[in-house]
Design goal:
Elements (H helix, E strand, L loop, with lengths): L2 H28 L5 H16 L3 E2 L1 H4 L16 E6 L5 E6 L5 E5 L12 H4 L3 H5 L4 E5 L2 E5 L1
Antiparallel strand pairs: 1-5, 2-3, 3-4, 5-6
Helix pairs in contact: 1-2
Length: about 140
């Protein structure tokens, strides 16, 4: 397999991952009570990522539940709160399996990591148009429209 064929194969994998993510998001927005199809799409997406040894960008990874393969959308499939006891963190709880994810908002040096609501949730307008999925492959970053 020459270099051109490998790049085409990677491109088709990225397009498939992007399609599955957008399809899961669209299905969940249209019918929030039917999560079986969403879980199938997310499970298939994670299987493709593992088989092709790819790394998903953290902004996309934060919207997926590892335990029950559910897309985490605040107010529909997850709850989001800010915890400020020791260190400010965003706490995302999956409603399906009660799994908790914590993301730090800052470190001890005073540098603030930018975690906005767009990295946790995607607007409904972005699902109807072409949502950009960022996926890291080894050392390169690819953006798929």
């Amino acid at each position: 397999m020459n270099k051109g064929n490998r790049e085409f194969a990677k491109s088709s994998v990225f397009h498939r991952i992007n399609f599955l993510y957008q399809a899961a998001h669209t299905v969940l927005r249209q019918n929030p009570h039917d999560v079986t199809l969403v879980r199938f799409y997310v499970n298939t997406l994670q299987t493709i990522v593992k088989k092709n040894v790819l790394k998903i960008d953290p902004s996309i990874k934060r919207t997926l539940c590892k335990k029950c393969c559910l897309l985490l959308i605040p107010g529909i499939t997850s709850t989001v709160r800010i915890n400020a006891k020791r260190q400010k963190t965003v706490v995302v709880t999956c409603i399906g399996c009660n799994t908790v994810k914590r993301f730090p908002l800052g470190d001890s040096n005073g540098c603030q990591e930018k975690i906005s609501s767009s990295s946790i949730a995607i607007d409904a307008s972005s699902t109807t148009q072409s949502a950009k999925t960022v996926i890291k492959s080894q050392n390169e970053k690819l953006i798929i429209n």
